[in-house]
Amino acid sequence: MDPVKQQQIDWVKAIMAHLGVTSANALALLAGINPANIQRPLSENYKGKFGVDTIAKIAAAAKVRPMEFPNRPSGLAEPEASQFVFDMGKDAIDSNVDRAVRELTRGRNGRDPWVIHSHALELSGILPGDVVIVDLNMQPHPKDIVCAQIYQWSTMRAETVFRVYEPPYLLTNSMRFGTSKPLLVDGNEVIIRGVVDGLFRRRAAEAA
């Protein structure tokens, strides 16, 4: 079996054990995805692997990072970005943040909101606290701001980052970071998930 697929299967089974579910259907319900997107890749007879979006949603349901095993220290620094969480409180309807993000994602599949925590793209106008909308269906072009995942298969961990796409590399654009090592998009250790298609800057009080 493809070693990458085997690693994915081992990770999904560990997540199921962590969440206390025994079937792909139950995991799919918790993650909010089509059960077939879990059932098929779990089969050794199915050649395809788990999709990046499926892995991300399973990870979110388990409150771990993609390909990070439960109850293991990540060994990574603070995340550069985190998925936006809608305010579910009684005043959510009055939240400017929620309303703006909902309008930017409503009725369109494959659009995920993320909160930026890094200065990696400050010279591109993206600052910590900004909410960006990632379109998972867009094909990246040179100079695009993209959402990518860096996999560390040896330790079964992954990190989500935002970078400038200069084929075949991903680059930071920051005064603070200086010249950082380019990341080669190889489809294995570095994978582009989507393209930033919108940005919403919260007021300082909301971003705090």
Shape: globular
Strand order of the largest sheet: 1-2-3-8-4-5-6-7
Poorly predicted regions: 72-77, 88-94
Identify the CATH class of the largest domain: Mainly Beta
Q: C-alpha Rg, in Å?
A: 18 Å
Instruction: Please tally the β strands and state the result.
Output: 8
Fraction of residues in β-strands: 15-25%
Distance between the termini: 47 Å
| Strand and helix order | HHHHEHEEEEEEEH
Count the domains.
2
Judged by helices, strands and strand pairing, the structural class is alpha+beta
Quick overview:
The chain has 208 residues and is of the alpha+beta class. The protein is 27% helix and 23% strand. The chain has 2 domains: 3-62, 434 Repressor (Amino-terminal Domain), CATH 1.10.260; 81-207, Ribbon (Umud Fragment, subunit A), CATH 2.10.109.
Q: Which short descriptors sum up this protein?
A:
434 Repressor (Amino-terminal Domain); alpha+beta; Umud Fragment, subunit A; eight-stranded antiparallel β-sheet; 6 helices; 208 residues
Please tell me about this protein's structure.
This protein has 2 domains: 3-62, 434 Repressor (Amino-terminal Domain), CATH 1.10.260; 81-207, Umud Fragment, subunit A (Ribbon), CATH 2.10.109.10. The model is unreliable at 72-77 and 88-94 (pLDDT under 50). It has an 8-stranded antiparallel sheet with strand order 1-2-3-8-4-5-6-7. The protein is 27% helix and 23% strand. A hairpin with a 4-residue loop joins strand 4 and strand 5. The chain has helices at 3-19, 24-31, 36-42, 52-62, 96-105, 204-207, and strands spanning 81-83, 111-116, 131-135, 145-152, 157-166, 169-171, 183-184, 190-200. By secondary structure, the protein is of the alpha+beta class. The chain is built from 6 helices and 8 strands; from the N terminus they run ααααβαβββββββα.
